[in-house]
Design brief:
The complex is a heterodimer of chains A (250) and B (457).
Chain A (H helix, E strand, L loop, with lengths): L9 H26 L14 H12 L4 H13 L2 H6 L1 H33 L5 H10 L1 H24 L1 H5 L3 H24 L15 H19 L7 H11 L5
Helix pairs in contact in A: 1-2, 1-10, 5-6, 5-7, 7-9, 9-10
Chain B lengths: L1 H6 L10 H9 L5 H5 L1 H5 L8 H16 L1 H6 L6 H12 L6 H5 L6 H15 L9 H9 L26 E4 L2 H5 L2 H13 L16 H5 L6 H14 L4 E4 L2 H14 L7 E4 H10 L12 E4 L10 H19 L4 E2 L18 H4 L1 H17 L4 E4 L2 H14 L4 E4 H8 L17 E6 L4 E6 L14
Parallel strand pairs in B: 1-2, 2-3, 4-5, 4-6, 6-7
Antiparallel strand pairs in B: 8-9
Helix pairs in contact in B: 12-21, 14-15, 16-17, 19-20
Classes of the chains: A mainly alpha (250), B alpha/beta (457).
Chain lengths: 250, 457
């Protein structure tokens, strides 16, 4: 299979995926435990408990009932209402990145499942899996472009707007740069394969397509498991959780 | 020696709820808070005082002992210089809460800063400047002005009718009792005029302890909260009226956290109570006030109470009261309601960092001048004090009054403050009315020297 290059095999990729997921899950556990250092109520004693963090979060998130919780998820988490209220441009940026990333991650997971079905010919569905994989290429392209739009707005804001630029830290630059790089390498890998969405064969060079795909995958998984849970980029998880715990905020 | 002890002491996560530790990581550095922060607006060279940077710094300090690196290689002691700067950053904040209003991550910032500060106090870094006097003064005198408790009602006119108990209780607060008695007199006169039977607690009224909670010194809080709630219950209160934004904020949000029993009464801003009377047609005006008046929304009964009492009570009632006054032209400042600009008095800043409070007040006075207002009206004695200071420093001609005083003046009520032991400490703009016209005069403070702590919350 052309995808596996530079000595990578299917089994090795599965092993690496398991390791990446394990690191990510441990990272999330680590953060939950850190948040659990706090108390469960105002002026209460410290608990230092992973489970009590979860209990406190559930208590806070459902304090005003299930409907408020659902409303918060829909309006504040999925539709980013608070961002829209402050800046429509930033809202477009966040929505593009949020849904671009989320869908690409989901599609990647689905792609891996299909790969497994194809590899082991589970239920004799190898051929259908191959067809299904082909069908995924269009949504991959669409959501890839969506992410690219968001990442481009983010980079442009940091470069063009003085106030934003002045208050951009190395952390911000790294995150936005990494997202931009991951998106671009993903596209480039796709374009190198030829017959790509919107650009056709303009960049066709199939020999190096797997190499770029590998670079893209390593960068994406690296950011996902080895950077995100261990740095301030945990906000990707913490922000929606905060919105839910605070029932949408002030 | 003391420094060595501090060095080896980790930054505690005490007083922070686990969901607040989550909030610190929830900051996505969108920079929105920086655009609205009123302290950063007057100290643009100090981005560290903005919420985004404070969160980042707290996270960094926490990571010294609670990161993966710390778990593997052991924690690091906190650098005392770094802690000193961080303490300054945390206390260079009026806890006005506009950052929470605009925060995209929905972080409840006021609660977060108020949970960070006690950690710094416990560690020996906080409070800041003269804020340290608050608990000592309140513990000794039950008010921050070193006034006598038996003098709480010394300003009440002899012919005014005030009960000792009743279903409606007016909680005046320390500032109206000792420093801005014109507000107290106007309130009592209006309530009498409207035939409202009401009581006051007198010497049983203790400081609401707002300044202490805001500055991270919670130790006196329980005592004050429990005493005041019990005193109000003993007086038979069902409705408690407040003409002080700091007191009603504390009574509504903070006291219930410290009081374990049932609280049978409802806290009502005086402007809401008067607006209801207006709507019933019970208020009768006699003298037109030919001023252009703008309204400064106090943070404490605006943004802080918005989710408890609703927009109408928080923002609209006071405006409706002002708009009802004949001759008065009402105009809003550009920044109003939940996006208003803090006057700079809150969060202990007036006592701890007076120059910062003054610069913020000047910025608010400029907001008033921008809309050509003659008077900035408010419902908070602390905002009034600070905006007056800003006005004086900026040499502006704007006058600063309370909504209740404007109404009382237009109703033709006698607002003369009886001579009392605190007359010499009065320093405020007052309305002096003849039979047909009122004018604003400024009472200069007669006693030299300043209060140990400024009129602050």
């Amino acid at each position: 299979m052309a995808f596996y290059t530079l000595g990578l095999t299917f089994n090795l990729v599965i092993l690496l995926t398991v390791i990446v997921l394990a690191v990510w899950i441990y990272g999330i556990y680590f953060n939950f435990k850190k948040w659990g250092l706090g108390s469960t109520g105002y002026h209460d004693q410290l608990r230092n408990s992973f489970w009590l963090f979860i209990a406190t979060w559930i208590h806070e998130a459902f304090k005003d009932g299930v409907w408020v919780f659902i409303r918060t998820i829909v309006l504040d988490v999925f539709l980013l209402r608070r961002t829209l209220a402050r800046s429509p441009v930033r809202w477009v940026m966040h929505m593009s990145m949020f849904y671009g990333f989320l869908t690409l991650a989901a599609l990647s997971g689905l792609g891996l499942m299909i790969d497994i079905v194809e590899h082991f010919n589970l239920l004799g569905l190898a051929e259908q899996a191959e067809i299904a994989k082909e069908a995924l290429s269009l949504p991959f392209d669409i959501f890839g472009y969506l992410l690219l739009i968001g990442a481009t707005i983010a980079v442009s804001r940091r470069i063009l707007l003085k106030f934003v630029r002045d208050n951009t830290s190395a952390y911000d630059a790294f995150l936005i740069g990494a997202v931009f790089l991951i998106t671009i390498t993903g596209f480039y890998a796709e374009w190198l394969r030829g017959n790509a969405f919107l650009v056709g064969n303009a960049f066709e060079y199939p020999l190096y397509a797997p190499h770029f795909a590998l670079i893209h995958t390593v960068l994406a998984l690296g950011l996902f498991a080895f950077v995100l849970p261990w740095t301030k980029y945990i906000h990707v998880i913490a922000t929606p959780m905060t919105l839910m715990a605070n029932r949408g905020g002030e | 020696m003391a420094d060595e002890k501090k060095e080896s002491k980790p930054l505690m996560t005490g007083y922070l709820m686990s969901t607040q530790l989550l909030e610190i990581d929830g900051c996505n550095r969108c920079q929105e808070c920086m655009k609205w922060c009123p302290t950063f607006a007057v100290r643009p060279d100090r981005p560290g005082i903005t919420p985004m940077y404070k969160n980042a710094k707290w996270r960094e300090l926490l990571a010294k002992n609670h990161s993966l690196r710390a778990k593997i290689f052991g924690g690091k002691p906190l650098n005392e210089d770094e802690m000193k700067l961080f303490t300054e950053d945390v206390y260079y904040c009026t806890t006005c809460g506009v950052c929470g209003t605009v925060c995209e991550a929905g972080i409840k910032t006021v609660e977060l800063w108020e949970a960070m500060r006690p950690n710094l106090v416990d560690r020996g870094n906080g409070p800041y400047g003269k804020q340290a006097f608050f608990p000592k003064l309140v513990r000794a005198d039950r008010n921050p002005y070193q006034g006598k408790q038996e003098d709480r009602l010394c300003w009440v006119p002899k012919d005014a009718k005030v009960e000792e108990s009743g279903e409606i209780v007016y909680f005046a607060g320390c500032t109206a009792a000792y420093r801005q008695q014109a507000l107290g007199v106007a309130t009592v006169r209006i309530l009498n005029k409207l035939d409202v039977d009401f009581a006051m607690l007198g010497k049983e009224e203790w400081c609401c302890a707002s300044a202490m909670v805001r500055t991270g010194q919670r130790e006196v809080m329980a005592e004050c909260a429990v005493h005041n709630v019990d005193a109000l219950k003993d007086a038979g209160a069902k409705t408690v009226l407040f003409a002080c934004a700091g007191c009603i904020r504390n009574s509504t949000l903070d006291w219930p956290r410290w009081y374990e029993g049932y609280i049978p009464y409802k806290n009502v801003p005086l402007s809401v109570f008067l607006r209801d009377k207006l709507r019933k047609g019970e208020v009768e005006y006699k003298i037109p006030l030919n001023y252009t008046v703008t309204y400064h929304d106090p943070c404490h009964n605006g943004r802080h109470l918005l989710h408890e009492i609703g927009r109408d009570w928080a923002f609209e009632a006071s405006r409706e009261c002002l708009e009802s006054i004949p001759g008065l032209k009402f105009v809003d400042m550009v920044r109003n309601r939940e996006l208003q600009r803090c006057c700079g008095a809150g969060g202990g800043v007036k006592a701890g960092i007076p120059d910062l409070a003054l610069d913020m007040a000047k910025a608010r006075v400029m907001d008033g001048e921008e809309v050509h207002a003659d008077v900035i009206a408010s419902t908070c004695p602390f905002c009034r004090r600070n905006i007056m200071d800003g006005r004086n420093d900026a040499k502006s001609s704007i006058k600063v009054l309370d909504v209740v005083e404007l109404m009382a003046a237009s109703m033709g009520l006698d607002m003369t403050i009886p001579e009392n032991p605190y007359t010499k400490y009065q320093e405020q703009d007052v309305l002096v009315c003849g039979p047909e016209v009122c004018k604003v005069e400024t009472i200069e403070r007669k006693a030299p020297g300043k209060d140990l702590v400024g009129e602050a919350h």
